[in-house]
Amino acid sequence: MRTAIMGAGSLGTIAGALITKNGGDVILIDANKEHVKALNEKGATITGTMELTIPVKAITPDEMTGIYDVVLYLVKQTYNEVALKQLLPHLGPDSVVCTLQNGVPEDAVAEIIGKERTLSGTVGWGATFVGPGVSMLTSDPNKMSYDVGELDGSIRERTKKVAELLNLSAETIIVPNLAGIRWTKLIVNATMSGMSAALGCTYGDILDNEKALACAVHIGNETLEIVKARGIKLEPLQGHDLSVLAFQNKQERDAKYPYYKAVFSPHRLLKASMLQDLEKGLKTEIDAIDGVISDWGKKLGIATPISDKVVEIVKGIEAGKYTYKIENLDMFELPEIPEA
User: What is the pTM of this model?
Assistant: First the structure.
């Protein structure tokens, strides 16, 4: 079985290193030539909450040959059009591509490679790209996880094979309710990653700032209102039921703060991949994360003011109108809600 990780950035580098370390045979594919060169010459180096260097095999997309049976797909959604069309000639009728991207990417991926080839999953840990060949793990190694599933909710032999491959790098659970885990992860991305990008800070900085945390909690509530309206049943995330984060008043809202701190404290060092993109002057995946909340809010007539503001600020940073800094908190106005 030929396996590959396409998009060997911060997450893909670590996943590839750990899969290789634990006996898997996987090739890392990335468009960054300097990164690929360093991976081949020096190995994949993990820093941060884990310290190790593992020899790996890496290539650029133009060096792909033959057919890949399983591809773990970690390219940012902004590059789907290019990356998936590069991959397409190297997929056979029985090839499987498991998208581990942020947001809700399945339809966009399936549209290019075919629904039958598409699996999906979420990544329950974070990392920061340091430089060629080096990625920093920012989550507790004991709290790393994946959830994977078929688009139709079935569990097939190929689902188990993908789960077994991922399990070489972190605990992996097969989830029949794919929409449930996707929207659970979207709560994480929209709340913490959205605020991290807008404010230029880590998850820990958000947890330690009362207003920033309040904004994140409101984004979670906005997302849960959409989830409820759409009839989606959320799946637990690393044992945490995020549906309990809904609230109607300030007393209920403030009671959610300890829960957020419990869920996200293992990831205090995490800096959103969107912020990493902004630091490099690149476009972000904001439309596929907080933008999804804003778009569904408009469709369903649900107010999403904090999500809307995150989208506005991040797009403003992309356009050079703003910079990513904690002072951007001044642009947020918490919605008026009853005291109790």
Answer: 0.88
